[in-house]
Amino acid sequence: MFHSSKALIRNPRLALAVGIGIAVLLQLGGGWIDPYTTQVVLFAAINVILAVSLNLVMGETGQFSLCHAAFMAVGAYTSALLTGKALPTLLPHLSWTGSSWASQVFFLPVLLIGGFVAALSGFIVGGPSLRLRGDYLAMVTLGFGEIIRVLLQNANFVGGARGMEGILPATNLFWAVGFAVLTVYTMIALVRSTYGRGFQAVRDDEIAAAAMGIDTTRVKVTAFVIGAFFAGVAGGLYAHAVEFISPEGFNFLRSFEIIVMVILGGLGRPVGVAIAAILITLLNEWLRDLSQYRMVVYALIIILFMILRPAETLRPLLSRVLPGRKSAAS
Amino acid sequence: MTSAGTPLLEARNCSLRFGGIAALTDVSLRIDKGELVGLIGPNGAGKTSLFNILTGVYRPTDGEVLLEGRPVTGLAPHRINRLGVARTFQNIRLFGSLDVRMNVRTSFIARLRGGLLEVVRRGKKFRSEEREIQEEGRRLLAYFGLEEASILPSRSLPYGDQRRLEIVRALATRPRLLLLDEPAAGMNPTEKEELKQLIARIRAEFGTAILLVEHDMKVVMGICERLVVLDRGSLLATGTPAEVRADPKVIAAYLGEQHGEEES
Lengths: 330, 264
Ligand SMILES: Nc1ncnc2c1ncn2[C@@H]1O[C@H](COP(=O)(O)OP(=O)(O)O)[C@@H](O)[C@H]1O
Ligand SMILES: [Mg+2]
Prior knowledge:
The structure holds two protein chains of two kinds. Chain A is mainly α. Chain A contains 14 helices and two strands; from the N terminus they run ααααααβααααβαααα. Chain A has helices at residues 2-10, 12-29, 35-60, 68-90, 101-131, 136-154, 173-191, 194-204, 206-211, 216-242, 252-264, 270-286, 294-308, 310-321; strands spanning 164-165, 244-245. In chain A, strands 1-2 form a two-stranded antiparallel sheet. In chain A, α3 (35-60) packs antiparallel against α10, α5 (101-131) packs antiparallel against α10 and α7 (173-191) packs antiparallel against α10. In chain A, 50% of the residues are buried. Chain B folds into two domains: 9-84 and 175-259, Rossmann fold (3-Layer(aba) Sandwich), CATH 3.40.50; 93-158, no CATH class. Chain B has helices at 47-54, 77-82, 100-105, 116-121, 124-143, 159-171, 189-206, 217-223, 241-246, 248-258, and strands at residues 9-18, 21-31, 36-40, 62-67, 70-71, 85-87, 177-181, 209-213, 226-231, 234-239. A six-stranded mixed beta sheet of chain B has the order 6-7-8-3-9-10, with helices on both faces. In chain B, strands 2-1-4-5 form a four-stranded antiparallel beta sheet, covered by helices on one side. In chain B, α7 links the parallel β7 and β8. Chain A binds chain B through residues 12-13, 186, 189-190, 193-198, 200-201, 203-205, 207-216, 222, 268, 326, 328-330, and chain B through 48, 51-52, 55, 57, 76-78, 81-82, 86-87, 89-91, 93-98, 102, 105-112, 114, 116, 119-120, 122, 126, 129-130, 133, 169-170, 172-173, 181. The structure holds adenosine-5'-diphosphate and magnesium ion (MG).
């Protein structure tokens, strides 16, 4: 047992294969799982993707992004438009129900396109603001989140403020768990490489990183774009799991929820962040009837965490958010 | 004193102002291939500022920086590093959350051949490249006596070792010119002696030219071929250690002030 878990750590591709295998087994042999539990697992998997991808930006690279839910929205709306309008119009003779083979086969490219459009929007937002020294990113991402929300509220072809309903229920355990495994794998594989140490070098000391030949802007934009891509995929999975999306579902509070997962998971520890995402998902289910107090609970958790493990929580965040950190090279 | 040929690095009439403060005024400097030049001057003289314009951290308000005759004024720091100039910092700037090995490994990022997908796929090319980098990093750490510490967090190292690691990390970028900003600051006499030997070994092994900022006159006088003296942002004197030591202006501005003063 110990031996095999060690082998998984040493051979990430084996871990990936095992994870995907579990996703397939869940899908094929999971008929006994009741619909409610299935939905909780889907939400947990989607939250894992969101949290682990934001962790690359916030935890590994030290960039404070406040619009992860907006990238999720871009992926959700893009993929919902594809399955709801584009595909049935282009291929009307195929059957477009949630479990039909056509929707299952086309779901992969649909999710990936959602991810790419989200990545593109990440590039447009992150490109210019990450080039600047200082902490513009928090402000720009806060603004971008609002812009996306307002745009969606006023876009009638996607239902405006009422949102889009009747989305194809194509998300199942295979896609959600499979993508969660793939995301965790990608993040760990990325960071555990010479290339990936660049993210952490930029987080620890941008000036020293640049002096060692690292193109820090490029590193930050790369982390941001990869993060946005996976958030977009998560958005697609989410839209096709709940069958209904609205602009309010992707507001700042949703971004904040993902930030809480990343902080609780220990900023820069992909596995910890994935576990935190699962725990928060369960917490949300328990608090379902008290959802108006959710933010209060999150705030309390964060405060408790800061008291218990102040160094880990505060250092990476405050060094970014507060002015006067060592900036001039000396 | 001027040697023939294009200098490795040249600063021509460089000035740097921060609002009303003139950190550097009309400073010119040349460093030849393989040369060891000492840069001295009292606190606030502009030594670190000069490093910052040579490495692209700041763009000089006036003047030009040339690397082998090619203008590099205002190029981004990572570009200047890739052209062969590496540095250490007066206030140590290691990657605190990374271990000693990984601190050195970051210096290889700029030379990576494989792309992102290759990293995620972990294919053969990726694995062989990682192995090469690992091996070169290990050799460098061994050469400078840090092999034992390789899996320790860099911030847990003793002060002298942190300074040494910063030098190794800079060397791992394979520079032709190494800028050392007060590497002996805070070192005890034994560590300073070791540092002198370290500098000699770097030159012997890698042929790297070095620009050394140092407060301890014994260190600079002992090993530098040529000294450049800055005072209040201007070039005060330049020459061999003997010439500089005998220069009345230098004695007045620097040696006089330093006399009997504790090292900071
Ligand atoms: N980023 C900065 N902003 C404002 N003034 C600076 C900055 N960097 C250096 N200076 C000023 O430039 C002058 C030279 O400083 P510095 O280059 O650090 O000197 P040295 O390294 O010789 O001690 C000092 O007066 C210092 O206060
Ligand atoms: Mg200085």
